[in-house]
Fold this protein.
Amino acid sequence: MSSLKTEAAIKSYGRFWIKMVETSPVQASAHGPICYTLGAAFDPNATTLSEDCLFIDVYTPSGASESSKLPVWFFIQGGGYIQNSNANYNGTGVIVESGRNIVVVNFNYRVGAFGFLASERVAKDGTLNAGV
């Protein structure tokens, strides 16, 4: 298996947003930091918490090439808009079970006060989609 992680094109620093462009794939052997959430402090698998947390993990079979035309499973973790249930999901098991015939994509996104806000007023105003 090979794991490919590319960093989001936008990094945040305090109140300012700085556009960063990565022009080539970044090989990674570990997950990046996870986004701050209500439940993140209680996640035993959490590596590091950071606002600089927008990462995409792409898992491919080791023999795959750009012309392989494999199906892609885009895994969107749950958590009720207040926490991420599995920010660092490892897609290798899915690849093995598929007979090495699938690409698995997972990503981090912001929830709670840093992303998807949850309250009666926010729901009434219809402004829930602030996390992506």
